[in-house]
Amino acid sequence: MGVIQDVIEKVNEKDRGQVEFLQAVKEVLTTLEPTIIKHPDFVKAKIYERIVVPDRAILFRVPWVDDSGEVQINRGFRVQFNNAIGPYKGGLRFHPSVNLGIIKFLGFEQIFKNSLTTLPMGGAKGGSDFDPKGKSDNEVMRFCQAFMRELFRHIGPDTDVPAGDIGVGAREIGYLYGYYLKIVNQNASVLTGKGLEFGGSLIRPEATGYGATYFAAEMLATRGLDIKDKVVVVSGSGNVAQYTVEKVIQLGGKVIGLSDSNGVIIDEAGIDSKKLDYLLDLKNYRRGRISEYAEKFKVLYYADKSIWDVIREQSIKLDIAFPSSHENEIESVNAQAMVNNGCFCVSEGANMPSTMDAIEVFQDNNVLFGPGKAANAGGVAVSGLEMSQNSMRISWSREEVDQKLFVIMKNIHKMSLEASEVYGKKGDYLMGANIAGFLKVAKAMMAYGII
Ligand code: NDP
Ligand code: 2IT
To answer: pLDDT at position 205, please?
Structure first.
């Protein structure tokens, strides 16, 4: 058996049941195959075998008291995967589906994504099976305080700097940071995505969605195309989706679809900036459902469906897709329907939203496919810029941060494309991003010896 296959087999055996983690390992390692010939030193030092085992995985109990006085227990996680090129960095996810395998997949992907940003950040991820949906602000606050009561001892501005992800937005970061400040008594850059009043960066809320759109624009430019007048579908309606819609509108595209975990809206007239304002208020302040958008603007609503099912079942035409909700949301049958309905560009706002079979369908059909670790790296990149501003005790303007984000996304595109060419599959952004992200981390690991 080959080196890569050996490592995959071992993960399959030793990390049994961690299906998303195994999927991420397979997706990354199989594309690293061409690096083996150029780097026998990596094989000798067992870099491939070492990189799939986290530096450490912290699991903890999170007890808190709900509004009715009942004690609730959740599971807390922080997986510090690899700090070869910088302090651990990666978001916190609060969602009932969270388990060790999901956090490990996200932390593993984060190693390569963070490396691609060119900023000094290692890979990590954390979270809890706590569901903020339907909880009062006081319950969310008590949960966040209980979560930080353990997490604080594992993080620090030069050690590990968490941020948001699914279910963790401005409100949660505020509560988490406030409690860290209270118990550690240090106003330090220990979280990113902070409020502007307490060390946050302009453009951080927008960064992932804007970045995914910039990445799509770069891919399109390789074929002499742009976003103007293109029909766009975005899944989800959370942080990443919202600011993808905003940037697509700014660039003249027409967004016709959005979703949440209860259903899908199809707005054939297109979402304009007034409708987007309504959506931001609905989702970020009233914490409502996307069905309310359908009621308000009298558009089509499909309950209990994924948006990719609706695209297939209703034969909806589209040019560009931004899957921006959760892992494995696009399976091959829907990928094929997307291609049949005209889709020629997919830029992944979410982490691993396409299954490996779905990616194969996109690649076989010459779809411009931007994998999450490249396309959605804008979020963590601006987190890195937030850390820089905090260290320098300054803050940059919106224009300055947006310009830096734009340049970073352009570079990620360029590095991924170049690596795909050097390693023999020009235009395979998945392979290019994985290799470009991996090489920097692997070389740092080589420099350190066996640790
Ligand atoms: P949010 O919590 O703000 O939004 C998530 C959206 O996806 C919501 O509309 C939610 O619906 C929907 N969703 C989540 N899980 C499911 C599910 N299992 N089934 C159906 N719908 C679901 O999260 P973000 O926008 O921050 O994150 C979205 C994706 O982007 C994730 O994959 C995340 O890892 C990735 N990402 C996020 C970054 C960031 O900076 N925030 C950076 C890079 C990647 P509902 O509200 O009904 O639950
Ligand atoms: O998946 C991701 O890159 C994030 N959730 C953002 C991480 C961060 O540290 O900003």
So the answer is: 98
Q: Which of 89, 104, 113, 125 is catalytic?
A: 125
Q: Is the pLDDT of residue 40 over 90?
A: yes
What is the pLDDT averaged over residues 61-66?
A: 98
CA distance 208 to 405: 10
Q: What is the pTM of this model?
A: 0.98
Looking at the predicted structure, is the pLDDT value of residue 1 above 90?
no
194 carries an active-site annotation: no
Question: pLDDT, tens digit, for every residue of 248-284?
Answer: 999 999 999 999 999 999 999 999 999 999 999 999 9
**Domain coverage including residue 134:** 3-187
- Residues with a CB atom less than 6 Å from ligand 1: 97, 164-167, 169, 208, 236-241, 260-262, 324-326, 349-351, 376, 379
Report how far residue 47's alpha carbon sits from residue 66's, in angstroms, rounded to the nearest whole number. Answer: 46
Q: Check: CB of residue 370 under 8 Å from CB of residue 216.
A: yes
What CATH number has the domain bearing residue 269?
3.40.50.720
Per the domain annotation, does 192 fall within a domain?
A: no
Residue nearest to atom 10 of ligand 2 (CA): 380
Beta bridge partners of 64: 72
Residue 207, pLDDT > 80, answer yes
Instruction: Say if residue 236 is in the same domain as residue 350.
Output: yes
Report yes or no on 269 lying in a domain. Answer: yes
The rounded mean pLDDT for the chain is: 98
How would you list the strands of the sheet with 320-322, edge to edge? Answer: 300-303, 263-266, 254-260, 231-234, 320-322, 345-347, 368-370
Instruction: Give the count of domains, the chain.
Output: 2
